[in-house]
Amino acid sequence: MQYIQSTPEQRLSPDAITIWRISAIILNGIGLIVLTALLILDSVFGWRAWIGWLLWGVTAISVLYAVWEIFIRPSLLYKHWYYDANEEFLQLKHGALKKVHQIVPMAKVQSVTTNQGPLLRKYGLYSVSIGTMGSSHTIPALPEEVALELRNQIASYARINEVDE
Fold first, then answer.
1. Of 70, 45, 22, which Cα lies nearest the Cα of 55?
2. Helices 49-67 and 15-45, interaxial angle, to 10°?
3. What is the mean pLDDT of the chain?
4. So where does this one cross the membrane (predicted)?
5. 163 or 95, greater pLDDT
6. How far apart, in whole angstroms, are the C-alpha atoms of residue 59 and residue 65?
7. 127 bridge partner residues
8. Cα 69 to Cα 72: distance, rounded to the nearest angstrom
9. CA distance 91 to 71
10. Is 9 helix (H, G, I), strand (E, B) or coil?
């Protein structure tokens, strides 16, 4: 049995920060556009006063949340995201506020896939999804060579463990 390192050492691509920021801008932008439209409708149609106050309160909270999602969270996510894989285990460690350290035995791995959406494609990155009997684990924003090598490595380790059992 191999020694499990206390902390995985592999990192995500630094472009992950940019991708997470762009995603947050898109999602929060849509929400703020909807709130702006509702505020305009409130002023045009003169809805009840409490509706206007409620909309302004939701807008203020949404702006604060957008600042968190766009400027602070991506850097924290990147700073605290680590992964590692060896013949026996896949380790995933992430989270700044809620720390998660997952150890997945290679014998339990059933599938490994690489995914690439439009933003990841623009930056030449992939995410790697590892499926087990009860759950799925994702390593986001890896460079293409690293992602494909990791996918093949995990698939190889999982196949070796199936043959040995």
1. 45
2. 170
3. 92
4. 20-41, 53-72
5. 95
6. 10
7. 115
8. 6
9. 28
10. coil
Output the six-digit token pair for 85. Answer: 């894989």
Look at residue 140 in the predicted model and tell me its pLDDT. 97
SS3 7: coil
For residues 95 and 79, the answer to whether their CB atoms sit within 8 Å is: no
- Burial label for 131, CB within 10 Å (0-12, 13-18, 19+), is middle
| pLDDT score, position 164 | 46
Element (H, E) at 106: none
The pair of structure tokens assigned to 29 is 């932008």
pLDDT at 7: 79
Helices (H), 46-82: 49-67, 73-79
One-character DSSP codes across 75-99 = HHHHHT-EEEE-SSEEEEEE-SSS-
Percentage of the chain modeled with pLDDT above 70: 93
How many angstroms separate the CA atoms of 111 and 154, rounded? 9
Q: Any idea what DSSP says for residue 72?
A: I
pLDDT at 159 over 50: yes
Residue 71 is given by DSSP the state I
